[in-house]
TrEMBL record:
One of its GO terms (molecular function) is rRNA (cytosine-2'-O-)-methyltransferase activity. It catalyses: cytidine(1402) in 16S rRNA + S-adenosyl-L-methionine = 2'-O-methylcytidine(1402) in 16S rRNA + S-adenosyl-L-homocysteine + H(+). The gene is rsmI. Catalyzes the 2'-O-methylation of the ribose of cytidine 1402 (C1402) in 16S rRNA. It comes from Rhodobacter ferrooxidans. This is Ribosomal RNA small subunit methyltransferase I. Residues 244-287 form the RsmI HTH domain. It is an enzyme of class 2 (transferase). Keywords: Cytoplasm, Methyltransferase, rRNA processing, S-adenosyl-L-methionine, Transferase.
Length: 291
């Protein structure tokens, strides 16, 4: 099917809210069911209406006079009642994220929650997801994983955020701005240790797709002074029970103390090595006094 070619008329959809996953890069990653829903829904809503219109044009899905409502973080309070009213009238409503699966770092959560609370049917047309695509190509364990979203923008909140995740027994998955990827990798070294396996996935499924794999230390060094563009997913292997002998502890603290206070360095190393904070703090205090 080419641009401008119209898909066959679809059967009417049953009333309900349909969350439609859309490509994260390659337009052909859209599913046939997603196209059917977009072609048949009574009401269309999207995080970015231009992106959805272009996707429908590529695949020959005609709007047929239907309006595409913008629904995003800045207008959700105003637009959500309109979509709920359409559901109340027995209409089918399709919501598409800008890219990937709705509700994953996407404003659709409140819409889905409100529809469920009102007793309407909520259905998913599964498809592309940057989280799962990155996990698939990372080479890291996939038996258990945690999507942690975007790290906080401020240094103090980000440090606490990483420390709380330090001992989670799962592959950790983060979204990050390309402008901050070098910084977050350096902070992960201080909080998790430099030997943890990790991966940085950039522009997945797009023309300049790139996957960098290695230890956190290697990746932090590689991205430290590098100008990065595109969508970024960072993955970090679970804690492996590092050797917490005295030499390992002191080496980790010496490195952490280079950029953090005694308290913060001790907290980060305690998480990374799985040791009691009080014990690590006493060693950190002594190292700081000896300098």
């Amino acid at each position: 099917m080419t641009i401008g070619e119209t898909r066959p008329q679809q059967r009417p959809l049953a009333a309900g809210l349909y969350f439609v996953s859309t490509p994260i890069g390659a337009a052909r990653d859209i599913t046939l069911r997603a196209l059917d829903i977009l072609g048949a829904a009574d009401v269309l809503a999207a995080e970015d209406t231009r992106t959805l219109r272009h996707l429908m044009e590529i695949h020959g899905v005609a709007l047929g006079g239907r309006q595409v409502l913008a629904y995003h973080d800045h207008n959700g309070e105003a637009v959500r009642p309109k979509l709920l009213r359409a559901l109340e009238e027995g209409k089918s409503v399709a919501y598409a994220s800008e890219a990937g699966t709705p509700l994953v770092a996407d404003p659709g959560f409140q819409l889905g929650r409100a529809a469920i609370a009102a007793g309407f049917a909520v259905l998913a047309a599964p498809g592309p997801s940057a989280v799962l695509a990155a996990l698939t190509v990372s080479g890291l364990p996939s038996d258990r994983f945690l999507f942690a979203g975007f790290p906080p923008p401020t240094a103090g909140a980000r440090l606490k955020f990483l420390q709380e995740l330090g001992q989670v027994q799962a592959t950790l998955i983060f979204y990050e701005s390309p402008k901050r990827v070098g910084k977050i990798l350096g902070e992960m070294v201080r909080c998790f240790g430099e030997e943890r396996q990790a991966a940085v996935c950039r522009e997945l499924t797009k023309r300049f797709e790139e996957v960098s794999r290695g230890t956190l230390g290697e990746l932090a060094h590689s991205f430290a002074d590098r100008a990065v563009k595109g969508e970024i997913v960072v993955l970090v292997d679970r804690a492996q029970g590092a050797k917490a002998d005295a030499e390992t502890l002191e080496a980790a603290l010496v490195q952490a103390l280079q950029g953090q206070s005694v308290k913060d360095a001790a907290a980060a190393v305690a998480v990374a090595l799985g040791l009691p904070r009080r014990e690590v703090y006493q060693v950190a205090l002594k190292l700081a006094e000896d300098e």
